[in-house]
């Protein structure tokens, strides 16, 4: 029996699985499970807004004292240089309270990350203060008029050589900074993204440190902050608005890692291409997207843990034969509702661990491949989409699966629902991010053909089209077609092979990608680029989604490979099958329309989901325990007072 | 030009459409638009719980003074005998505030409905008082341990002939009444559903009037009420719990329309079959389900009106050719996200009007067909599912489509989201209700064969199987298959024909129904009835859903037939096409797997959705205006202060 680190005695299957899902920063997760289970970190939905905000700030001071944030900073900046540990440790706050997680993320991740990664030696002094919360900051990127389109932000930072200052200004109503966590109340300084102008020339978006408030919390001259007020959730986060009326800041407040302005106004940058400079700047902030995805998944795990445990206690309707009331989780519809979401939670946990490992390797300098950063950004965007979408769906299903009890705040799920709702929006709208992923893989595809002339394109299109045809008329498809026409027994076992499953996921991605590329190409000759793109937008988004699904499956498969315990591994394999079958089922019309699955095999997929949820039903509690949310952190009243919904 | 009632001048296309969607109680809707637009009825999310509850109660007094509730009661009971007008008028409150709508529904619909429909002459005195709010009541059906399974409620009402009283008691923790609107604070009396026991015999669930509080609001002896506290929404509704400790009430407090207990304890009922008695009792309460569906759809219309209007003002990302930023609604993905939901809102509005007409005909005695009541209950259950599911989805999409702005309470959508979240649960969990619909149509199907012996079943199965095969191998299918194999041009126009569309919806329902019946039959011989049912549960639920989709489409088609204005009618036809195509698209894998659509036609469906959203794009504002939520009732700050998200 393989020993699971840090466990006393012989580990259970659930513990083996939990160890696998915990990933490389398992020790930090275990520490956090102990520390954050303390009641002081639990959300209190009965507080009013000012109380909720004050409480979160107090909680953050304790988090700082426990040493969580300093992992996120380099040793020379007063940290311990463990970015993976920082993201993982703070993610565990999501089990306690998402307001606390968001506000911590704003202070140490976004604001701290901007100062550390976009600043230089001269800004180092801020870091120690922001780690220990002597300096509270905010991350003022989004404006009321521009969120996803960061390059077109309207706030200006105009250099005045006479005084060696930048003048920060809000030129229009839509240039107002908005939804900024910390801006309503606590932040003393903001990392402001603004269009840099010097010597009459626009140089694009750069980041500046702008003091907002004095020690008493009053707006400084030229600064007007206001409060976004109540939101759909996250009451402990003081989101607000900022406008700047010709606010002067020293030249040195430009975070000048990638570009600088000399005292005389001369602009310089080691990155000549402005677009590359912009994307390099944003790329250093990838940790935010990595973190949001992780916290969304953590929230989903809490909700699913509550709903599955409830379904293992609550009974409804007596079996006419036995007279015994049936447990909710013994209904097929309930199994189908919850267990595929548990399976997806497993898949995403492995995918998130893999993502954090990649991020950590790059940010600690162990990974030096120049393509790795761009690949990380694509993957972080894709997993942010997958995980936040999953969280919205899983938490909504969990709420409904718990009926009226699920609607009471004392049972926690509605708070998770409200808090995570905006995760599909922040750190990038999910549609825009899916498009970003798709564009990235499309441009990879186009690179093969970048320099082709018109004739080359024609030849290329012909070849690729043939390639596509090959897929549809290849040997496998032929067998398939033959089978469909006759009454031969279909070999359903085939679909159970991991290699076939991976191929099916890859086929969908490849086919969507190639056909999207061709569609764009074909349209581009008749219409404007925007119209060509817009006409194919649903196709392009589908390609992005297919890419994400494949990455997640690959991570799941890799994750299983690391499980040594045979029982745990076998269970994980079944969970992986359920992830595969339910993902295939969600995309069944596509597979049928493009003849990657025959009708008989499609029916086998649907049947397979039923069989797999039935097979996993006895292990439901094991799976919940493996997801790793300690029972003491669920904080759902109905789980502690089970007699009220269990018949005596 | 056909004149639209009550409109000055020549009506616009939007006004014609609105008149059609308003339906038979248009005058009441118009009156409500004027009256409820008053700021006093708007929700105020900044109130704390006690304030929110007190405010709703005050608002209800004004609603009562305006005469809305009395429409719901018969003339002899002090009402005006207009049940359709009552449901429609109160539904309009959903545009103002859903807490107000729910609490009004509890008082006048559930509590008032129980007294009027389950009580007799001797209870008439309560009605006048509850209409004018001198008597505040609640509807104490659900218990912590039993919600969907009303027949197994645990609260007891034991008759004591010695004192001619019933003794109401809560025998177990799970028998606690829970989630009861009004129980936490305002209700003075409860309509309590409990197991009637007399002379040592259980007679099933009956309804009793039980006083809860004295005039100072203190619990009466034996009564313990408590507060459910915060919920995912509906802050103005004081949901709570009630336990009864041997509470004695007079014999006359039994609502005795369908059954009575004589002073000596003798039980009598005009309905001998206890199960039929129970379902008759519940059937009289159908108005609750009718109302919830309507209010859910109203909430969806508000959210979609806000999101579409925002998408017609907010721009993001410049078109590289023109430099102009693109309106959100000009993106294909945004059109695809919002416009099919608008189309579904149209469909459901027509279906709801049709449902209310049927309810009104029965409840005013104009409809006397004995099957009509049962058919109404099935339809009400189905449309409750369809509309509450639609609301959850539409409001979630609307939130996401408005990005960060959508998350601010000042823009209303998150409040709608939280308030409607529980609509999928109350008045019957959606899974349970879908099952009820499916069982009802299954039993209709089984009636044809109810008395068959074993041989008869075999013969029946053989015939029906042949029938199913006919569908798959019929002429149309044959042509289809031929087309698929060759390169002939597929006649896509076919799918645009309403008759073909209706047939496709009906085919899906028929096929799912027949195959579910056969599956149940086949399984029943190998296993227990519960297992047979449970194994086919996903299949049965799919049959229920298909039935609902067909009803909705038929109502849409009938609704269009009443539009005289040619432009309005043409636009409605296109909206109906979008409803059809997007519903087909959602069920595409089913149509493909069961060969009702060929691959080529399936692709035409997908393409069709794209073409239809593009065609409807220029009419987006017209469609929103037609949905009939007055601009003054949207109350989204971002729509009144557009400069902050529109580039100057």
Automatic annotation (TrEMBL), chains A, B:
Cofactor(s) essential for the protein: FAD
All copies of domain Acyl-CoA oxidase/dehydrogenase middle, residue ranges: 138-247
Listed GO biological process terms: fatty acid beta-oxidation using acyl-CoA oxidase; lipid homeostasis
Tagged with keyword Transmembrane: no
Subcellular location: Peroxisome
SUPFAM superfamilies membership: Acyl-CoA dehydrogenase C-terminal domain-like, Acyl-CoA dehydrogenase NM domain-like
Acyl-CoA oxidase C-alpha1 domain segment(s): 283-441
Domain of life according to the entry: Bacteria
EC number of the protein: 1.3.3.6
Top enzyme category: oxidoreductase
Domain Acyl-CoA oxidase C-terminal: 500-636
InterPro entries (alphabetical): ACOX_C_alpha1 (IPR055060), Acyl-CoA_Oxase/DH_mid-dom (IPR006091), Acyl-CoA_Oxase/DH_mid-dom_sf (IPR046373), Acyl-CoA_oxidase (IPR012258), Acyl-CoA_oxidase_C (IPR002655), AcylCo_DH-like_C (IPR036250), AcylCoA_DH/oxidase_NM_dom_sf (IPR009100)
GO MF entry, a single one: fatty acid binding
Record key words, sorted: FAD, Fatty acid metabolism, Flavoprotein, Lipid metabolism, Oxidoreductase, Peroxisome
This protein's name: acyl-CoA oxidase
Source organism (scientific name): Nocardia camponoti
């Amino acid at each position: 029996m393989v020993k699971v680190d840090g466990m006393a005695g012989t580990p259970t299957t659930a513990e083996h699985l939990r160890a696998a899902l915990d990933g490389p920063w398992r020790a930090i997760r275990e520490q956090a499970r102990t520390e954050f289970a303390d009641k002081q970190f639990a959300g209190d939905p009965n507080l009013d807004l000012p109380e909720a905000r004050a409480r979160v700030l107090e909680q953050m001071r304790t988090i700082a004292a426990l040493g969580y944030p300093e992992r996120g900073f380099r040793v020379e900046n007063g940290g311990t240089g463990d970015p993976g540990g920082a993201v993982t440790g703070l993610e565990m706050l999501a089990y306690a309270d998402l307001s606390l997680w968001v506000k911590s993320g704003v202070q140490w991740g976004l604001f701290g990350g901007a100062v550390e990664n976009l600043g230089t030696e001269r800004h180092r002094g801020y870091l120690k203060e922001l780690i220990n919360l002597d300096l509270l900051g905010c991350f003022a990127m989004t404006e009321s008029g521009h969120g996803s389109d960061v390059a077109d932000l309207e706030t200006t930072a105009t250099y005045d050589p006479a005084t060696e200052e930048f003048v920060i200004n809000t030129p229009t109503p839509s240039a107002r900074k908005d939804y900024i966590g910390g801006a309503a109340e606590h932040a003393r300084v903001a990392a402001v993204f603004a269009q840099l102008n010097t010597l009459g020339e626009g140089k694009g978006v750069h980041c500046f440190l702008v003091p907002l408030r004095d020690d008493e919390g009053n707006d400084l001259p030229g600064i007007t902050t206001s409060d976004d007020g109540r939101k759909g959730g996250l009451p402990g986060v003081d989101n607000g608005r900022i406008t700047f009326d010709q606010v002067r800041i020293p030249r040195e407040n430009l975070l000048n890692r990638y570009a600088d302005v000399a005292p005389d106004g001369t602009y310089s940058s080691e990155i000549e291409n402005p677009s590359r400079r912009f994307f390099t700047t944003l790329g250093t902030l990838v940790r935010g997207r990595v973190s949001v995805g992780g916290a969304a998944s953590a929230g989903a795990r809490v909700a699913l843990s509550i709903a599955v445990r409830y379904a293992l206690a609550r009974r409804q309707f007596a079996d006419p034969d036995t007279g015994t009331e049936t447990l909710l989780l013994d209904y097929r519809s309930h199994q189908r509702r919850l267990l595929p979401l548990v399976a997806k939670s497993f898949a995403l946990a492995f995918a998130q661990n893999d993502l954090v490992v990649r991020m950590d390797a790059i940010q600690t300098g162990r990974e030096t491949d120049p393509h790795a950063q761009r690949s990380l950004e694509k993957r972080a965007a894709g997993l942010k989409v997958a995980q936040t979408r999953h969280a919205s769906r899983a938490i909504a299903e969990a709420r409904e699966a718990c009926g009226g009890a699920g609607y009471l705040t004392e049972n926690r799920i509605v708070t998770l629902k409200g808090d995570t709702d905006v995760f599909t929006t922040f750190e990038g709208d999910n549609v825009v991010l899916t498009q970003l992923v798709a564009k990235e893989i499309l441009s990879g595809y186009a690179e093969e053909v970048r320099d082709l002339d018109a004739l080359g394109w024609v030849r290329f299109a012909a070849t690729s089209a043939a390639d596509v045809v090959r897929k549809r008329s290849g040997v496998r498809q032929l067998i398939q077609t033959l089978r469909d026409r006759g009454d031969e027994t279909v070999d359903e076992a085939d679909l159970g092979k991991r290699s076939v499953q991976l191929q099916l996921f890859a086929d969908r991605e490849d086919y969507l990608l190639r056909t999207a590329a061709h569609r764009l190409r074909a349209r581009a000759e008749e219409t404007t680029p925007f119209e060509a793109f817009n006409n194919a937008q649903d196709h392009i988004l589908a390609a992005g989604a297919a890419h994400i699904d494949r990455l997640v499956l690959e991570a799941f498969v890799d994750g299983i490979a690391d499980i040594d315990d045979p029982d745990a591994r076998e269970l994980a394999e079944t969970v992986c099958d359920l992830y595969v079958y339910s993902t295939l089922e969600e995309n069944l019309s596509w597979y049928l329309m493009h003849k990657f699955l025959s009708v008989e095999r499609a029916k086998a997929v649907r049947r397979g989901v039923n069989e797999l949820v039935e097979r996993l039903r006895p292990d439901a509690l094991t799976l919940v325990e493996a997801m790793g949310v300690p029972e003491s952190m669920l904080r759902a009243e109905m789980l502690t007072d089970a007699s009220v919904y269990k018949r005596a």
